[in-house]
Amino acid sequence: xxxxxxxxxxxxxxxxxxxxxxxxxxxxxxxxxxxxxxxxxxxxxxxxxxxxxxxxxxxxxxxxxxxxxxxxxxxxxxxxxxxxxxxxxxxxxxxxxxxxxxxxxxxxxxxxxxxxxxxxxxxxxxxxxxxxxxxxxxxxxxxxxxxx
Length: 148
Hints:
Layout: E1 2-7, E2 20-24, H1 25-32, E3 38-40, H2 43-71, E4 75-80, E5 87-92, H3 94-105, E6 114-115, E7 120-122, E8 124-131, E9 137-146
């Protein structure tokens, strides 16, 4: 027997926070509700919440489009020490890129949304993907320059 719950936190394999999902009655009663991860809701309330969530999704998508325009409008520049062959002493990580985005653009982007195959370890110009929404991804222009 299934019951509808509204999730209060993201739960891997179940759903995102504020979404209404159907789970087994035992899972809801014995784990989700006691742990404070979900609340049991009526079917009518669940339908109302689904409508609100769809409206929130549209707002998130619109915000992601705006953030994409902002991120693609400028290049961010890192100045780093480098040795032979333009290899950096250290590397530029997604966390550092996230911090720089906050300083330059004023956007708080989670480092997990910044897609780097590996840390940047050489001087040069890079295109870094930033996942903003399910289907929206910005191409951030990152320049690594040599420190004098």
